[in-house]
Amino acid sequence: MKLEDRMSRSIKQRAGVVVLRSDFAKMGSDSQVGRVLARFVAEGRLVRVSKGAFAKTRINKFTGQPTAAGTLEMIAAELFRKLNIAVEPSSLVLEYNSGRSTQIPMGATVSTGRRRISRKVTVGNSTLTYEKNSRRA
User: Fold this and answer.
1) Whether residue 86 is found in the same domain as residue 53
2) Is residue 56 packed enough to be buried (19+ CB in 10 Å), middle (13-18) or exposed (0-12)?
3) Following DSSP, what letter does each residue of 11-72 receive, concatenated?
4) With contact defined as beta carbons under 8 Å apart, do 33 and 7 qualify?
């Protein structure tokens, strides 16, 4: 069985939307895996959302083009869970959820606590922003 077929089967059997490049490290060399992932992106089976991170696609019923199978917030949450990075909702989301504010937060922002994260996560035209909480205990 070809590497492309094995990777395609592995992607289809996954429950989540996010696929990491490191998930395929045991299947072949770095260059082989990279070529197959690039082919999947060119064919529209996957969308690149970050360095070494891809998302499954679905066909948009309005444009007929492949788009990410989830929202930016959902994909980012799953990506950070897979990378073991602890993030929390931003302060604006917390204020809205607790009822202290009636303004709905529009941009996708997560709080990283005291940790500095520089990973760029993009889905379509939307990019995730980070809010660093530098309060000392």
Assistant:
1) no
2) buried
3) HHH-SSSEEEGGGGTTTS-HHHHHHHHHHHHHHTSEEEEETTEEEEEEE-TTT-SEEESS-H
4) yes
As a residue count, the chain comes to 137
Q: Which residues of the chain have pLDDT under 50?
A: 136-137
Residue range(s) defining the domain that contains residue 89 = 71-137
33: its two tokens: 């895996």
Contact present, 123 and 72 (Cβ < 8 Å): yes
Q: Which two tokens stand for residue 60?
A: 């948009």
Residue-wise pLDDT for 73-106, tens only, equals: 999 999 999 999 888 888 888 888 899 988 888 8
102's CB contacts (< 8 A; 6+ apart) are 96
First to last CA, the chain: 55
Q: Which of 26, 45, 70 corresponds to the end of one domain?
A: 70
